TrEMBL record, chain A:
It holds the Pfam family pre-PUA_NIP7. It comes from Tigriopus californicus. This is 60S ribosome subunit biogenesis protein NIP7 homolog. It is found in: Nucleus, Nucleolus. The keyword Mitochondrion does not apply. One of its GO terms (molecular function) is RNA binding. The lineage of its organism: Eukaryota, Metazoa, Ecdysozoa, Arthropoda, Crustacea.
Automatic annotation (TrEMBL), chain B:
S-adenosyl-L-methionine binds at A408, S409, A410, P411, G412, G413, K414, D432, D459, D476. This is SAM-dependent MTase RsmB/NOP-type domain-containing protein. Keywords: Methyltransferase, Nucleus, Ribosome biogenesis, RNA-binding, S-adenosyl-L-methionine, Transferase. Residues 1-115, 127-196, 611-886 are annotated as: Disordered.
Amino acid sequence: MRPLTEDETKALFEKLSKYIGENIKCLLDRPDGLYCFRLQKDRVFYVQEKIMKMAATFPRDALMSLGTCFGKFTKSGKFRLHITALDFLAPYAKHKVWLKASAEQQFLYGRNAMKSGLGRITENTDKYQGVVVYSMSDLPLGFGVAAKATAECRHAEPMSVVCFHQADVGEYIRNEAMLI
Amino acid sequence: MGRKGNFQERVKSGPGRKTKKQADPTFAPEILEAKNAPTQTLNLSRRQRTRVKKREELKSQLKTRGAIPTTAKGKKRAVKIPQSDDDSDDENLDNEDEEMEDGGNLIGYSDENQKWLKPVAETLKRKFGDYHSDEEEDGEDEELEDEEDDDLMPDSFANSDEDDDDGDGDENEEGDEEGDEEGDEEEGGSDEDEAMLPIEREAKKMEKKQKKLQKIAQMDMDEAMLSNQPHEAITLPTVLELAEEAAKPPDLHILQTRMKDIINVLQNFSKLREEGRSREEYLECLKRDLCQYYNYNEFMMEKFMQIFPVSEIMEVLEANEVQRPVTIRTNSLKTRRRDLAQALINRGVNLDPVGKWSKVGLVVYSSQVPLGATPEYLAGHYILQGASSLLPVMALAPQESERILDMASAPGGKTTHIAALMKNTGLLVANDANKERTKAVVGNVHRLGITNTVICSQDGREIPKMMKGFDRVLLDAPCSGSGVISKDPDAKAKKDQRDIKVVANLQKELILAAIDALDAKSKTGGYLVYSTCSILPEENENIVNYALGKRHVKLVPAGVDFGVEGFTKYREFRYHPSLKLTRRFYPHTHNMDGFFVAKFKKLSNAIPQTHNNKADESEAEENQDDEVPDKQQLKKKERIERKMKKKQAKLDLESSKDLVKPQKKKRRFEEPKPEATNNEELPPSNDQDSEPVKEMPEEKPDQTTPAHSPAVTRSGRTPKPALMTKGQTLRAAKTPILKTRKGKKNENDSPPKDQGQSKASPKADQAPKSGKGRVSEVKETGSPVISAQVKKGQTPKAGKMTKGSVQDRTPKAKVGQSPKMNSVPTPKVGKGKEGASPNEKSPQTPKGRKGGQSPKVIATPKIKKTPLKARSAQKKSPKSGKKGKK
């Protein structure tokens, strides 16, 4: 377990900013204590500093998780967000996509979201902008990348993809072993 | 959308228009009398007679529809009642009399008939008496008898109206009977009756009838209860029958009835049992049947039968076959129970709160969607969790911003519950020894949005070494799973004594670790909750009691107000009275998994050391004796053994230079002997030496002529005393493996035996066999080291002395060593003596000893030294012995 290096921090923040923009600040300056990012076995954990210090007493190979896992660094040095980060992305998300009930299930099985299932979409979403996907009852379902800008969506065909799938909560049961 | 069970529009119960009871049919007195009209039976053939009867019957039916020959049933009753036992004999007689009368009056009964009709009934009785006794259910009985009647007495009754027989038959007949019996009453009361309206009269009659019916039914029941059982009890299956049964696939019906019967007998044993059958036989049979019926193995069934009274056992086992209702726990961090319930109801789930004791639990009765895959589930609004696993967390009562440890957390149900109660503050350490299973914890923790948790995969026993000072600890210990058989039926067939012991051992270690991880000085806490999903006291009360004895903890009320109190005594175990404060939960009484919860409060952080260590040792020994040596220790042992072998080999090589091989071999055996002899036994040995020497020339060298080979060997060794001793100690360590604790225990008692020993040794030495025996014995004592040193220092002398046949001196040598040495060799000696020459030496030994004591003064300094060493050796030996044991 160690703090992130400069490069790693940069990669992480770049990725996060795609979804929550400048709200990253809210993650770091919190009223309820100091929070920090820590790297453990290539995973990035977002955790209260107090807890992190206590967790340091456990041997590295025994430590499975602390706080919340945000994602992992791939071997090539890129950062990949995990669905476990959704709890912190959803409240701060800048751009959101709402799916109709009929399309919900599809998305939860790992499919991209089609225009036909699109319920709502935030104005001014750019193409390839990170978005958090919600159900119509405002349950966060996952996140992805907008395949089309808001304006394009209006005129898109029903079967065209509007949001690429990146992670969804279905992974909790579909992919529990590889969750973090 | 959702279909919620609508319980408001419940159909009214109670008597409505449709349920109004119709009055029983009544018959005109003529009809009743009609049946009494004697039919003429001529000397007809059997078939003719039946035909005649049919005809008549038909006629009468045409005339009066509904009048049915009662006799059949009357017979039936008569037949049935006699089955009942001695108590009801009088009744039987009466009944039979009635029967007779009936027979006299009945249709188709002539005097001739009567003769053989009776016997038929009796033969029926005889034939089917046994059978009936097997059958409990009256209904079946009746049916059977119906058939029998039809078959066996076709001539006397018309078969034409079988339909009626089955249908109204019963009522009618009973009515008729009553009619017969009550005839007098009715006539007597007829005056009054006339005053009444006919309907009223009817009603009165009906009442009476009903009462009668009830009475009869009651009697039947009683008979079934009382009279039938003894018969069944008698039919405990014989060995042959069992063998037959075993050959066939089990007939569940037979098994079930037999089990019920046996349970009945066991509940009223003195009355119902069969003469000469012991309770054990019944229990044995019951156990066998239960095992077969429910697919348990014998061990588990025995455990269950030990825990539950016979009356409950069936219920318990039945409950174990049935799935418990699915329960879910609301994640109070993300939603409220009411909202969740609404959302789920909208998805077509039928649910209810689990009970007043929990604010987060919901019971699911039925669901149209998979509960583990709804969007609410994925969003972390709830988790599937057994009702029973809410209990330990409630008992733990975690507070905000505490430090809490969950020692065996997978799959995370309780962990997340704790975190939810802590409202994501403080620190929660979730540990599980199994790395694979921690992944489930990780998944659940993240899904439910818990951020204060550290998940690690460590052996729970190591945790206090890494982190202490927890305010609360939850130990949901790994267990045999005897409480969750409905979930995992493997437990009932695949667990045995060994598994339980292994698990219990682990639990003991875990609970101590858990207590050590606690901080007694915590302002808010210092509590440990120990829970298992097992119902065996071996894994529950035993462990709790153990912890109470090992650490400064006390039991406090578990904080759950239902459940059964824990056992304070169970079979041979007597637990601390405070174990009443623990709680047990059973599938059949609480409709949740079998569960056990105990809550401790830690009183001080100090670990009671002194008695603790001793206890630990003894514990360890016990454990080692019957199970599960630690792998590491095993390895260590192996390593030591290997070393020993090497060293031994070296030694052998060295000595072999000087020695001829056979001698060498012998020497190995005898090494221990000389010490023994030298130590204490020399004096007597010397006396007898002369004789034995002659007998066994081979062994001489050791004792009598030290100058020869033995001397050489000694000399060969002496230069490397350390090695030798080591090697020997090692051997000592090894040897005890073969023979277990005896040596140790004997160490203390030995002194009195010493005397005997001294005598024995000489002979033992001489007789090769006995010598062998001795060697092994020496090993037992576990301190052969002594012998080596003794050899070095004394034996030569002793040998010389013996040569000189100085009886006086030898005692001295003994004396010097004896006080301490005694203990070591004694056990051997005793044995050796027995083997060799119990008679002669016994008288002498005391002498030798006494003689030895007096000359103390003379004892040489060298000799004195040895005891010290011996002592040290002894000290060592027990340890090595222990290791070796495993």
